[in-house]
Amino acid sequence: MPNHKRTTLALAAALAGSIVVTGAPAAYAEVVDVNYQCVTPIGPKGAVSPIDIKSVKSGGGYKLTMSFQKGVSSSPVELGKGAMNPSAVIELGGAETGEVQVSGPANAEAIPANTPIKISDLSGTYTPKKSGKVTFTAGVLTIKALGTTTTCTPKNSPGPSLELDVQGAGGSSGGGSTGGSTGGSTGGASGGASDGGELPRTGPLDSAAALGTLGGTVLLTGVAGVLWLTRRGQRSAG
User: Fold this and answer.
1) For residue 130, which phi and psi values (nearest 5 degrees)?
2) DSSP state of 25
3) Alpha-carbon gap, residue 233 to 235, rounded angstroms
4) What radius of gyration do the chain's Cα atoms show?
5) Cα–chain-centroid distance for residue 86?
6) What φ, ψ does residue 117 adopt, rounded to 5°?
7) DSSP label at 81?
8) pTM score
């Protein structure tokens, strides 16, 4: 095979390796069905709502947004504009344990009687203290309206809606059970963090890391091959 063809193949392998390395994700997210069973002033109610948790890098932490794709519970009377105030907790797991408090605005429009209550997006701030993989799972939802409080608890042991590979303020290794920092919509604790941004829906982190390692190996091998083939061609020409 001519030297220039071998050089072209080596360069192609190097470029392929580079693409794999830069494409390795740092997190994954998915929509999870949560079976909320609610204790209301007029008795038990329940509903299943798909829950989506997203993360955006914000200063020294992450802004978390918890979205409800279906309504939960209901009211026997109409809830006027601004009458209902929702809040919830997001359970931490993995490198850190604890809770992140999230809350949202009151209802922008009146909610008719005996209809599912649509929960607005809830947000809060998470600041990592440990480094490693941290999971985020929907926790207890609280609805306050007309002087009453309704508490909705997940009963189906839902899996995490989000996983982040974070860097704590002290740069310590992952693991351990120390609680993470929490914050509501008015602000959160300060501290260091790693890369953030809107999270893509992708596969497990371990597979991505393995692909990144493979890509780096191909990249180094490709560059070494280019140098070897180039020098060999120069000796042949001489």
Assistant:
1) -110, 160
2) -
3) 5
4) 25
5) 21
6) -80, 115
7) T
8) 0.62
